[in-house]
Amino acid sequence: MDGFDFGAIPALAEEHRMVRDLVTKFVERDLMPLEAAVLKRESEGQRYALTAEEEAPLLAKCKELGLVGLDVPEEFGGADLPLPALMAIEEEMGRTVTPFIFPPDSPNLHMLLAVANPEQRAKYLDPYARGEMRSSIAISEPGAGGDPAGMTTRAVKDGDHWVINGRKIWVSGVPRADFIILMARTGEGKRQEGVTAFIVERGTPGFIIEREIPMIGGRRTYELVFEDCRVHERQILGTLGAGYAPMQLRLNVRRLQMGARCTGMARRALDMMCEQAKQRVTFGVKLADRQAIQWWIADAATRIHISRLMVRDAAAKLSAGQDVRNEASMLKVFATEMAQDVLDHAMQVFGAMGMTKELPLQLMASQVRVQRIYEGPSEVHRMAIARRVLKGSG
Fold first, then answer.
1. Residue in 276, 262, 263, 274 with CA at minimum distance from that of residue 354
2. Residue ranges of the Acyl-CoA dehydrogenase/oxidase C-terminal domain (predicted)?
């Protein structure tokens, strides 16, 4: 964007800035040119997804450029990028609506890295880290969405197996997942106690995809049913009854990722808003010369800057092993609401054109709206932030 270099904040090592710049070029040269086709299909009611013909060369290009396994440890063949560098890359990826991610999905990767045993590392983590397997995670339930500690899905021991019964909802990526990480209650604790993570492979008897749920923003989630679903005790991920902590780690990584993506979306919206404001004339005056538009631009630039600093601060602390639950909650609330406002103003500057499905703004706006619910609604995060602040104020 003219006059303001968002990439000039000296927070990343030179080698990490080089990777980020490589990703920037990949987004602009390989992903953004696909947006028109993606938007057209989505507007016609087709799936918001790349075709196999579109995705295959992108994956090949990623391998060629070394953009697979960016935060995977070197022992698994990855680049072992620290979280601050990874979040800078996530920000760049947020600038496009072309639905593509560098494999593997980072939040689940970090959960597996934290607690997978040697056998699980060989069977699941190794191929997952190489981008050869896909996963999803099932946490929310019809009666326990914003409060995952209130889950009722239960696993009962039966010899060397566990029998799982329950229902999960709002689970992403299920049809393409080779396995899911399922959170179920195995103890009598009323909240965090007694929650265990299980690895459940696709095709396991009793693991039923009940229905597909279309979401705004082109996304689709799934409701899952588990009816006497038997998994071997070897499928316990981590420690029996202690699955909440690694799940929380996964959620924190995901919330940082969302904050970075929202920052990228807001950047794209601001770029488009500035370009349009400098070209569009109403009643003989360019929009760029109107104070209302100038304030929108100034506020957007300021809040984008704040959001990036929040992402980098939380990422650095999480990398250092610190508890970032508060920072992650603050970031998720701030970044999603910031991006919603910036996108809305950008759409307003474009007038009727901003309401069309030909521009990426409307799809980004819908996706950000969903993110104000995903991984904990804003109201729940505000409640948690206030509770922690009050607890430490006296």
1. 276
2. 242-390
Q: How far apart are CA 309 and CA 78, in angstroms?
A: 26
User: Which of 4-13, 177-186, 267-276, 373-382 shows the lowest per-residue confidence on average (mean pLDDT)?
Assistant: 4-13
Peptide bond between residue 118 and the one before it cis (omega within 30 degrees of 0) = no
pLDDT of 10 strictly over 60: no
SS3 27: helix
Strands (E) in the chain, as ranges, are: 135-138, 154-158, 161-172, 179-185, 195-201, 207-214, 220-232, 236-237, 281-282, 285-286
Kindly state the average pLDDT of the residues 44-51: 94
In this structure, the chain runs to a length of 394
pLDDT of residue 7: 46
Angle at the Cα of 65 (from 61 to 66), degrees rounded to 5? 115
Contacts of 86 (CB under 8 A, 6+ apart): 70, 71, 106, 315
DSSP 289: G
**Cβ-proximal residues to 258 (8 Å cutoff; 6+ apart), any chain:** 332, 335, 336, 371, 374, 375
- Give the side-chain half-sphere CA count within 13 A for 72: 23
pLDDT band at residue 115, thresholds of 50, 70 and 90? very high
* Helix, coil or strand: residue 135: strand
Assign 3-state DSSP to the chain and report helix, strand, coil percentages, each to 5.
55, 15, 30
- Quick one: 338 exposed, middle or buried, by C-beta within 10 A (0-12, 13-18, 19+)? buried
Residue that wins the pLDDT comparison between 85 and 4: 85
* 57-82 as b/e: b if 16+ CB within 10 A: ebbeebeeeebbbbbbeeebebbebb
